[in-house]
From TrEMBL:
SUPFAM superfamilies: NAD(P)-binding Rossmann-fold domains. It comes from Auraticoccus monumenti. Gene3D superfamilies: NAD(P)-binding Rossmann-like Domain. It comes from the Bacteria. Residues 5-197 form the NAD(P)-binding domain. This is Putative NADH-flavin reductase.
Length: 227
């Protein structure tokens, strides 16, 4: 299995849990020397996920791909989601691999498909989509089009705000599930569970951690500072 974005906080947890399940893992990162885990079943691949040669070689060596690649909010154009997705899809088609899981965000879910969200979020979500989050969300949307337009066995996973609190078990459903946060541990567990699960094949799945108590401002501050 290949993990793109392996050195991010969700990527590291995905790699660790995969090793715990006895899987063989290839972890792609631009900073291989900074990757914290060493293991006999782990191959840390140094390279950029927008480099066709890097992606082709990495995909050729694996049987499934999980992408937790991410970019910070910025006013500048973002293309890492869609460019890496295009390369991964064509490399998987070339090498005959089928299973692809990609992570985007509930930020893409239209407000009228979100049940039971507070009035403030109902007002703020479209604002975030159009202002500070625009370039990232636009590129996530392009990534979703590339992935869902492919003939692969894809699943698009949309989490809400991610946190570093310990995972306590996720809830998931097609398109939308209540809950404003998801522990990265739980996101990683869902991604790995989906490797052998056909429930969300060629579907968009929402995931959250029920009952997660989060101090909103502290979480936002930590997410901004981690960049
Ligand atoms: N943070 C949230 O609250 C939130 C909410 C909803 C959805 N999401 C999405 O969930 C996913 C995981 O988020 P996260 O916060 O755990 O991780 P993240 O901080 O977004 O990190 C993702 C990793 O992607 C890697 N990356 C970026 N550009 C790359 C490139 N060109 N080539 C190779 N690797 C590249 C970086 O690792 P290297 O620098 O080591 O290469 C980075 O550590 C992302 O898709 C994010 O957009 C996040």
């Amino acid at each position: 299995m290949l993990v793109l974005g392996a050195n991010g906080p969700s990527g590291r947890r995905t790699v660790q849990q995969a090793l715990g399940r006895g899987l063989r893992v290839d972890a792609l990162t631009r900073r291989p020397q900074g990757f914290p885990t060493r293991h006999e079943r782990l191959h840390v691949v140094g390279g950029d996920a927008t480099d066709p040669g890097v992606v082709d070689a990495a995909v050729a060596a694996c049987d499934a791909v999980i992408s937790v690649i991410g970019a910070p909010f910025t006013r500048h154009p973002v293309d890492v989601y869609s460019t890496s997705a295009r390369l991964v899809v064509s490399a998987m088609q070339r090498h005959g691999q089928r299973r692809l899981l990609t992570v985007t965000s509930t930020g893409l879910t239209p407000v009228d498909q979100r049940h039971d969200i507070p009035v403030l979020e109902r007002l703020l979500a479209p604002l975030a989509r159009r202002t500070f989050g625009r370039s990232v969300y636009d590129d996530m949307e392009r990534m979703e089009s590339v992935v869902s337009g492919s003939d692969l066995d894809w699943t698009i996973v949309r989490p809400p705000g991610l946190t570093d609190e310990p995972g306590t078990g996720y809830q998931s459903a097609e398109n939308w599930v209540d809950g404003g946060y998801c522990a990265r541990d739980d996101l990683a567990t869902l991604l790995l569970d989906q490797l052998d699960d056909t429930r969300y094949l060629r579907k968009v799945v929402a995931v959250s951690t029920p009952g997660l108590q989060v101090r909103t401002w502290q979480t936002i501050r930590r997410e901004l500072l981690k960049r």
